[in-house]
Amino acid sequence: MTWIERLQSVFVAVAALAGLGVGLATPLGASGEFVVIPALLVMLTAVFVQLDASNLKEVGNAKGLVAVSLVLNYVFTPLLAWALGIGLLGEQPDLRIGLLLLLVTPCTDWYLVFTAMARGHAGIATALLPVNLVLQLLLLPVYVMLLGGEAAMVDAGTLMEAVVLMLVAPLAVAFMLRWVSARFKGRRWREQHLMRWANRVVMPLLCLAVFAMFAWQAPVVAENGAEMLLLLPALLLFFVILPLVSTGAARLLHLPGPQRVALTMVTTARNSPIALGIAVAAFPDRPLIAVALVVGPLIELPILAVLSQIIRHRDKSAPAGQAAASTSDR
């Protein structure tokens, strides 16, 4: 993990604070409205360019892990998100929708880094990435309409338009970039140039989008700053409950060490960039929903970093026979 990856949450926090300062101190913040969606579209295209469907063959090698990850991500987690929202944010509909959007979208990028840090099964974790991407693309509108209730206040057509704009369009462009680069430049060129570019621009573009969002919505943030703190208990509870539940499920299934780590990371990490894109496109007149989504990674990334070190330390202290079994499974 590079030092830039280690400091992702710091960069996002600095971008948010800088945008807030610009938005409150100058009239330039209003221009952020025209930056957010383009920055997110290019960023998501770069994320999707790095997907490799050939890893799907690994899914067949871990059917138990795949099955329990799907149940946790698409049944247990949405219900938990709904319960946390109703229980802790019942009087804050915009924050509740922001929380729901964040928690029902499994991560499709940085969880791979933390899986590797914790010595998890990288092959299976990578294979689950396109599976989770397709499922969240199909199910996100369903979750918002069913679990958002009256707080969502958005019709299915608007939500589907947002999904097409922020997910389907970047995915299609990324697929074409992969195909064209391999067809005319070769796979080696694609790996050395296109993939390298895609990997390098994701974090700067995310920070640009966060900066523009906070500059644009600085008055909203300043007015509702205290309310946004109400998100913290719900987020902390989620990031405590999911690792415990996934670890318990892995033990019941007697999954080997690397698979247990992969399951924990793939069910704990969330997809805040995609959720942010959907929020901006589907709820343009309710900026607090999108602003709330920026709080997510500020909590999530440090927790994932700590979690990966706890899991790694625990595996190191495991009995010799157990450690050997985990290593041989890789």
UniProtKB/TrEMBL annotation:
Q: Which GO terms describe its cellular component?
A: plasma membrane
Q: Has keyword Nucleotidyltransferase?
A: no
Q: Which terms are listed as keywords in the entry?
A: Cell membrane, Membrane, Transmembrane, Transmembrane helix, Transport
* GO molecular function terms noted in the UniProt entry: antimonite transmembrane transporter activity; antiporter activity; arsenite transmembrane transporter activity
* Database matches in InterPro entries: Arsenical-R_Acr3, BilAc:Na_symport/Acr3, Na+/solute_symporter_sf
Q: Is Transmembrane included in the keywords of this UniProt record? A: yes
Q: So which residues are the signal peptide here?
A: none
| Pfam family membership, one | SBF
Q: Where in the cell is it found?
A: Cell membrane
Q: Which residues cross the membrane?
A: 35-53, 65-89, 95-114, 126-146, 158-180, 201-222, 228-249, 261-282, 288-307
| Membrane topology, from the record | Multi-pass membrane protein
Q: Which family does it belong to?
A: Belongs to the arsenical resistance-3 (ACR3) (TC 2.A.59) family.
Protein name listed in UniProt: Arsenite transporter
Please report the organism this UniProt entry assigns to the protein: Dietzia psychralcaliphila
